[in-house]
Design goal:
- The complex is a heterotrimer of chains A (311), B (325) and C (160).
- Chain A has 311 residues and is an all-alpha fold.
- Helices cover 81% and strands 1% of the residues of chain A.
- The two termini of chain A are 14 Å apart.
- Chain C is 46% helix and 17% strand.
- Chain C contains eight helices and five strands; from the N terminus they run βααααβαβαββαα.
- The model of chain C has no long low-confidence stretch (mean pLDDT 80).
- Classes of the chains: A mainly alpha (311), B mainly alpha (325), C alpha/beta (160).
- Chains in contact: A-B, B-C.
């Protein structure tokens, strides 16, 4: 009971911060915060696959590209309402995820890493190749929005997807994900179909990335293949690891880390921002190999035990 | 599988005899393939020793190539700089792993004293650290030597050599020679020397290796050193063609990774064969299939690789690991 | 430990399944300096089958052969003390007695051997001294000939 109350208090505080933050920060900062929400959605998705189901993906930038281009093409060429494109992007990315995920269930470890890596490289190349449809290298422009508008849209979407993720993970499906992660064989013997489960995890995870891609394009006000390169996929994986795999509590920290790191690094050293970024990534993973969620588990759990014992 | 490879080789030889252009392109493909293979072999060495895909392998190679360039700027001749660079690469690789192991030891010890229970982050945490190293090395090279493209001397003359009307580039032939030579030396080392055997034992069964008195950590450090040397050779061989720049190895690493996986990530022979095959196929595709423009080379290569993986999920030379539950 | 002259054959044998039989033997002599050829010849005398299987992967050997290989590998260390953990585990009775015969032979040539074994019958036959452990504590010890006659040992471990 006490734990539930504490949980509710933390969540209420988080909601209050997100709702009240726009009053305190500039429009430009709100744009950056919208970027955090974008990464948040994508990393929650990647975490469902890598953290909960144990399948590595170096290619989630590709699903963001699919979502992003869905939004760009629907609004630019077909005059769709921006909001309406987000669910469509999610669904299309879900289907793409299932198509990639089904064959990927045959692979694991380094082989899966390479296969998803390949997806991350192939999708931007396809975007360039079919330029009559995607605008090629020059990209597609869409209407520009204020930082505040983007903040509201992005964080609302993030909240919806967080609840979705929570519902999925606490239920039957979430249990099958974890079972498959821990042991394929044991999962089969308790009546779980690993191929179906992994494919579903891939598809759901890709759907999250698709929605994030939508937000990504909204924030940038254009879709361009370079933006969805390998670096994006790598940033998502870094964010997931820094946040902590197999837990949703740290994801926001991972999202802030990947969104803000380039900005901070530029601030520390104008000559060698990449050196600072590399060092920061190494140092964080070295000190927190289980990510921020791992730190929370180590610090908060003993602390709350102590409080409970004292009272 | 061996039959299939033999058939492919025969086809290449026949093609080369029939068409001069085919012969030239095959040799050029073998040269880039040799470079992919060296770097792929480096990846395999590290994967076998520590089960980690070292994403910084390409950047380590790039960095050592810059060191060679710097040595030459200071007036050291090509082969002097070559040997010195390999020495530096080896020391750097050994030092890197020694430092990492030491740092992990100090971290765990400190956390234990502070009463914090430390759970390992598993392979993904280590992979992210190598990605961090990739970013760091690329930034450092740009910072120290500026990101501008530099030309890099070749060990071999650029003029072609004519064999029965076919013009082979001496540089290509030299690259093939160096790449295959280093692979053979390495094979002899692993097969016939005591230390080579101990390194294999340490990588395969660390626990059993300790029982017979092998110092496992020292062997792992040696493995990193050798991998760094292979990378340095790859960097030195490719730099004259693609020029010296901080991002020079980015695509090469992807091909090397592809070659390693194609051959089966645990198979050294597979990595080399995979590299050569990838080099030749890419070059021939680029020459004869006009749909495959330069920007589609990578996607097409990876697409083919995906097909291979789906038919044989553990690569051409890999075998399924049977695990007891 | 290997350098101190102690060879340990753990439960599950600790052979290198991916390496060849000969490579396993070479690794056994890893801490030794100088030539190991003489010892390889002696190992061949104990285990004649090794000759024809020298280039076979250790993992493809039968259980009994792997246990013998583990023994041979330990022998290559020229240990002063040989520790054997459950050498009979999962092996056919005939193979077990063959292994104990060789262990006994090694012992008679002057090597100290410490065996942990469930199979009390065969262990007591082979050993000079024996200790009975129950839940981590030594409850009985003495020359094995005496233990064999001991009332409770007979009842609970030997079954007569």
């Amino acid at each position: 009971m006490r734990q539930r109350l504490a949980l509710a208090a933390v969540l209420a505080a988080a909601v209050a911060v997100v709702v009240l933050l726009p009053l305190a920060i500039s429009d430009y900062r709100q744009l950056q915060a919208a970027g955090v929400a974008t990464f948040f959605v994508a990393i929650v998705g990647l975490n469902i696959l890598t953290g909960y189901t144990g399948q590595i993906s170096l290619g989630h930038g590709a699903f963001m590209a699919i979502g992003g281009y869905t939004t760009a093409i629907l609004t630019h060429d077909h005059g769709w309402n921006l909001f309406a494109t987000i669910p469509v992007a999610t669904v299309i990315a879900f289907v793409a995820g299932a198509l990639v995920g089904l064959p990927a269930t045959r692979l694991s470890g380094a082989y899966l890493a390479l296969a998803t890596f390949a997806v991350a490289l192939v999708v931007p190349a396809l975007v360039r190749k079919f330029d009559h449809f995607t605008g090629g290298n020059s990209g597609i422009l869409i209407p520009f929005h204020s930082g505040h508008w983007l903040y509201v849209v992005s964080w609302t979407t993030a909240a919806i997807f967080l609840v979705l993720a929570w519902l999925i993970l606490r239920g039957r499906l979430g249990r099958s994900f974890r079972a498959v992660r821990d042991s394929d064989v044991a999962a089969v013997s308790s009546g779980i179909n690993p191929t179906l489960t992994k494919t579903l995890a891939f598809a759901i995870s890709a759907a999250f990335a698709g929605a994030a891609g939508s937000l990504f394009v909204l924030s940038a006000a254009y879709a361009q293949p370079d933006e969805f390169g390998l670096l994006l996929s790598i940033r998502l994986l870094i964010g997931a690891a820094v946040g902590g795999l197999g837990s949703l509590w740290g994801v926001v920290v991972g999202a802030v880390f990947v969104q803000m790191l380039p900005v901070w690094a530029q601030g520390i050293s104008k000559q060698a921002p990449a050196v600072i970024q590399g060092l920061a990534v190494i140092l964080v993973m070295f000190l927190l190999p289980t990510g921020f969620a791992g730190l929370l588990r180590r610090v908060v759990a003993p602390l709350s035990n102590r409080i409970r014992n004292a009272s | 599988m061996v039959l299939l490879l033999a058939a492919a080789c025969v086809a290449l030889v026949i093609g080369s005899l029939v068409s001069d252009q085919f012969a030239e392109q095959t040799v050029a493909g073998l040269a880039t393939g040799g470079i992919f293979g060296s770097l792929a072999l480096a990846l395999v060495l590290i994967y076998r020793a520590t089960e980690v895909i070292n994403f910084a392998q390409g950047q380590m190679a790039m960095f050592t190539t810059y060191i060679a360039w710097q040595l030459m700027q200071w007036g050291i001749g090509y082969w002097g700089a070559f040997v010195l660079t390999l020495g530096i690469a080896f020391a750097g690789g050994v030092a890197l792993l020694a430092f990492a192991l030491g740092a992990v030891f100090v971290r765990d010890w400190t956390f234990e004293r502070m009463g914090i229970k430390q759970a390992g982050g598993g392979v993904i945490a280590v992979v992210i650290v190598t990605i961090g190293m990739l970013i760091l090395l690329e930034g450092a090279a740009a910072w120290i030597w500026s990101p501008e493209i530099k030309s890099f001397p070749s060990a071999f003359p650029t003029r072609p050599i004519r064999v029965g009307g076919v013009a082979f580039s001496i540089q290509d032939l030299g690259t093939i020679g160096v790449a295959l030579g280093s692979v053979v030396v390495l094979w002899v080392f692993f097969q016939f020397t005591k230390v080579g055997l101990a390194m294999r034992a340490a990588a395969l069964r660390p626990f059993a290796a300790r029982l017979v008195g092998v110092r496992v950590n020292a062997m792992l450090a040696l493995g990193w050193g050798l991998a760094a040397v292979l990378g340095a050779i790859a960097g030195l061989m490719i730099a004259p063609t693609i020029f010296l720049q901080p991002t020079m190895m980015d695509t090469i690493l992807i091909y090397a990774f592809a070659a390693a996986v194609l051959g089966g990530i645990e198979s050294p022979a597979g990595a080399v064969v995979g590299g050569l095959a990838l080099g030749v196929v890419l070059n021939l595709l680029g020459t004869y299939v006009h749909f495959v423009t330069s920007e589609l080379r990578l996607p097409v290569a990876l697409g083919m690789l995906l097909i291979v993986l789906l038919i044989k999920p553990t690569g051409l030379f890999g075998h399924r690991v049977v695990r007891k539950v | 430990m290997a350098k101190l002259g102690i060879a340990h054959v753990p439960e599950g044998r600790g052979t290198f399944a991916e390496l060849t039989v000969m490579e396993n033997l070479r690794l056994g002599g890893y801490t030794r300096h100088g030539s190991i050829r003489g010892d390889i010849d002696r190992v061949r005398a104990y285990f004649p089958w090794i000759d024809e299987r020298a280039d076979q992967q250790a993992g493809t050997l039968s259980g009994g052969e792997q246990q013998m290989l583990a023994l041979a590998r330990a022998f290559m260390q020229r240990p002063r003390l040989l520790l054997l953990d459950e050498p009979s585990l999962g092996l056919a009775p005939l193979v077990v007695s063959e292994i104990f015969r060789i262990v006994k032979e090694l012992n008679e040539e002057g090597m100290t051997v410490l065996v942990v074994e469930q199979n009390a019958n065969i262990a007591l036959q082979a050993a000079d001294e024996a200790y009975v452990l129950e839940v981590g504590k030594v409850v009985l010890s003495g020359p094995s000939a005496e233990l064999r006659e001991h009332e409770s040992v007979r009842k609970s471990y030997l079954g007569y």
